[in-house]
UniProtKB/TrEMBL annotation:
Protein name from the UniProt record: (Fe-S)-binding protein
Required cofactor(s): Fe cation
Superkingdom per UniProt: Bacteria
Membrane-crossing segments per the record: none
GO molecular function: 2 iron, 2 sulfur cluster binding; iron ion binding; oxidoreductase activity
Species this protein is from: Aliidongia dinghuensis
Domain named Rieske: residues: 47-152
InterPro entries, alphabetized: Rieske_2Fe-2S, Rieske_2Fe-2S_sf, Ring_hydroxy_dOase_asu_C_dom, Rng_hydr_dOase-A
Protein keywords: 2Fe-2S, Iron, Iron-sulfur, Metal-binding, Oxidoreductase
Length: 418
């Protein structure tokens, strides 16, 4: 009889990770690791789930599903943002289906228990005159609106280092007034790969020049590292001039009141983020096919198109804020080998399609880039499932952020008992 070899524990897989290398195979592929990831990284940490402009008017609601958890982002009758669990306090039925809804009250379709938009239970038929409705309100979800971006934590003990993200990004996002934008377009792409591969792929531009021709019109891959010894003398001189331009441009932007320098909270922390104002290549205005602005109506109080791209990433999102529009992407793990990437294009709330902006120009670059990345993630996941896979070494020049992400991942799993 052939003996069964026990699979290593999750703890043993975490132990096996080598500094400077990608993760052991099982951390990308095993269903038990996927469930642990959901529990630790998506229930006990702050995650980005949507925007205030997802629910622009009282009665607007949007349901976001995260594994077995489901939450309702909504705007109440007083115009305030609320986030509640999508679980009726009677017998647990879902109140609303996934996606957007418009409601006057939250009415459970099962037994008609009825809640105000602030979560208060106001009607529970056939429960008797002594039934105390006050202790059956919908369970609230802890959330923070950061410049119009909604972050939630499903834990009763949310990490307090979210305060650093708030401090940095409220000021950086203020000129864009994301709270007063609207969603011009949205896509949902299901990548055939583990969510950590989706994040790793986004955190490096080693692959950009050979895979993202549309993005490279406006995005400068050298911004995320290069090996100077691998460049020709001419290319190395160009790279050095670019770095000097960055220093000069960042100093000027900062002096003009636009925070621009890189801020990183990537390891030895709970809330993982990075932000920096990036130079836009070519015509320098926006991430479009010709690097000129897609919308004539600029965001918020912006009066200039030469302020680059304020990028922000977290452990389940990446975002780009430009003078004329913004692109925001949310990552939701679906299984060990399937990941949802939900991307939204934001314009000024008063911008009119066909008058102020052309939708194809607005969306072309990131639709193409997301589709290309989806193929890359699928190829990567397929290779990692091969018995021949073994963790590879990261480039110290172009993949330093991947090493930090993997290190952070190990740290956070350890912090929660794995």
């Amino acid at each position: 009889m052939m003996s069964q070899v026990a699979s290593p524990s999750i703890s043993a897989l975490l132990d096996a990770r080598l500094a400077g290398h990608s993760l052991p195979q099982g951390l990308y592929t095993r269903p038990d690791v996927f469930e642990a990831d959901l529990d630790v990284l998506f229930r006990k940490h702050w995650i980005y789930v949507g925007l205030e402009c997802d629910v622009p008017e009282p009665g607007d609601a949007s349901v976001v599903e995260l594994g077995t958890s489901s939450i309702i982002l909504l705007r109440d009758d007083d115009g305030q943002i609320r986030v509640v669990h999508n679980v009726c306090r009677h017998r647990g039925s879902r109140l609303l289906p996934p996606g957007p809804s418009v409601v006057s009250k939250l009415v459970c379709p099962y037994h008609q228990w009825t809640y105000e938009l602030n979560g208060e239970l106001v009607h529970a038929p056939h429960m008797g005159i002594d039934f105390d409705k006050s202790c059956r309100n919908l369970k609230p979800v802890t959330f923070r609106s950061i410049g119009g971006l909604i972050y939630v934590c499903l834990s009763d003990n949310p990490p307090d280092d979210i305060d650093r993200l708030v401090e940095v990004m409220e000021r950086r996002l203020a000129p864009y007034d994301i709270r007063n934008t609207k969603i011009a377009f949205q896509t949902e792409v299901i990548e055939q790969g583990n969510w950590k591969l989706t994040l790793e792929n986004n955190r490096e531009c080693y692959h950009c020049s050979s895979n993202h021709p549309e993005l490279c019109v406006s995005f400068i891959d050298l911004d995320f590292g290069y090996d100077p010894q691998s460049l020709s003398e001419e290319d190395r001189a160009d790279a050095e001039r670019h770095q000097a331009l960055y220093a000069e441009r960042t100093e000027r932007w900062e002096a003009e009141g636009y925070p621009s320098a890189a801020v990183e909270q990537l390891v030895d922390c709970a809330t993982n983020f990075r932000t920096q104002r990036l130079i836009i290549a070519g015509n320098g205005e926006s991430q479009t096919p010709d690097a000129t602005a897609a919308s004539a109506k600029l965001l918020g109080s912006m009066t200039r198109k030469d302020l680059g791209d304020t990028h922000l990433w977290g452990h389940n999102c990446w975002n780009h804020f430009m003078g004329d529009h913004a692109v925001t992407s949310l990552v939701i793990p679906l299984s060990a080998d399937r990941t949802l990437v939900r991307t939204k294009w934001l314009v000024h709330k008063d911008a009119v399609e066909g008058v102020d902006y052309d939708l194809e120009k607005l969306t072309n670059v990131w639709i193409a880039t997301t589709d290309q990345d989806s193929e890359l993630v699928a190829r990567s996941h397929a290779g990692i499932t091969d018995p021949a896979y073994e963790p590879g070494c990261y480039s110290a020049f172009t993949e330093g952020h991947l090493d930090k992400f993997s290190t952070w991942y190990i740290e956070r799993m350890r912090a929660h008992g794995y």
